[in-house]
Amino acid sequence: MIDLKAFVASRIRSFSHAFHGWWYVLRTQKNAWIHSLASLAVLSLGLWLGLPSRDWAVLVLVIAMVWAAEFFNTSIEAVVDLASPVRHPLAKVGKDVGAAAVLIAAGAAVLVGLLILGPPLYERILVLF
Predict the structure, then answer these.
(1) Does the active-site annotation cover 123?
(2) Mind listing the pLDDT tens digit for each residue in 43-55?
(3) Which residue range is the domain that position 85 belongs to?
(4) Domain tally, the chain
(5) What is the CATH number of the domain that holds 48?
(6) Do the beta carbons of residue 106 and residue 68 sit within 8 Å?
């Protein structure tokens, strides 16, 4: 039989570890602040434009994709630094490929953002002028 108290305590610890990781990324990664500002800008613009649910679902997915890529990249960098404290060509490859993953995710998010936000934003701007 499962000990409910121990189960709940272990879930709380798991969430605590995850939030510590999130805070580490925000504290140490300059690009995380760019992602934060971009995420807030997109979410604010989406609210102002009154986007439909399907558009929100896509935006949330691509925002999460960029954040996940940044988190994976940060974890790769930490593990590579631990495994190879001296400079090594393969360590560079690992870090560069992780950074490329973030770049691909961010580029895709920009394109999706333009496709979803562009038309209603254009219509709003036309109405203003």
Answers:
(1) no
(2) 999 999 999 999 9
(3) 30-128
(4) 1
(5) 1.10.287.3610
(6) no
